[in-house]
Amino acid sequence: MAMSAVATKTTSPPPTFHTITPTTPPISLLQTDVARRYTHVHTPILLGLYVLRFNALVADPVSTMLNDLPYVALLQLTFCLLCLPPAGTAVASGNAEKGAGGNTKASGGSLRRKLPGATGVGKSTKDQDGSFSNKIAPSILSLILSVVLPPLPVTVLTILMGAPTTTHLPHTLLLAMHLSILTTLPLFYTHGVSSSAWYEITCLYLPFDGAGAWGGSVGAIVGAWLGAVPIPLDWDREWQKWPVTVLMGAVGGWALGKAILGVLFWKGRRWEMDELEEKEWQYIEDDQPEKKDQ
User: Per-residue pLDDT tens for 60-89?
Assistant: First the structure.
């Protein structure tokens, strides 16, 4: 008798969904008069810089982006120093509850992992509002991280999405550096190198904050993508060349995202995402005796 394998499909329960548990709280705006005022002034100042330099950007993109990069970084650092809590600041939300061993912990809170050399772990935001010296090291390290780490991956991703491959590489790299300063500098400053926070950032699951740091980052990414739309159109305009419209779209998206997603409407909210638990079909080998020919 011949042996045969028959694949049988076992009954599987329907797929179940559960909401990903958030671990990172929204970025809190420092409770000072300077922070509350400058967070609204910062957006038109930075946006105005790009608008004033638009003609120079069209005439010479590489030189203009290179010369403007220090000013953009300085404005973003000023925003971080005046308006945002540095990495290593304890942020708690919800009611305090007793943990194991009688230790008190805050439900929904977290401790952002500090950057190397940063001080002030475990201090409250209120304690660090007036301590400017505690913010110098995190700001410098955040600037270094945002200039060194993201630009190369962003450059590669931009090329994969249609940027010129063999030409305009300096244009693309400088574009990536501007995008990195706009989007990741405030995030490095507030979240440091926390793996849980950056996991939620890459999943677009970070809650939007009243300071507009995360909303501006999301808006800049969307704006850069939409800014590429006019490039292939046959309008024969000088400003259609790479990467003028992408950079200006990113800046416009940053300003709108900072205002709309953070300050006005979506403060404290996040995009809800579901994680699907899938079960694979199981196949059972069933050996059956093969009938011999009579």
Answer: 999 999 999 999 999 999 999 999 999 876
Using the structure block, give the residue that is written with the tokens 């060349």: 241
Exposure string over 236-264, b if 16+ CB within 10 A, otherwise e: eeeeeebbbbbbbbbbbbbbbbbbebbbe
Kindly report, residue by residue over 233-244, the tens digit of the pLDDT.
Answer: 989 999 999 999
CA distances from residue 8 to 5, 14, 223 in whole angstroms, order as listed: 9, 18, 51
Angstrom distance (rounded) from CA 184 to CA 191: 10
Asked if 126 contacts 31 with a C-beta cutoff of 8 angstroms, the reply is yes
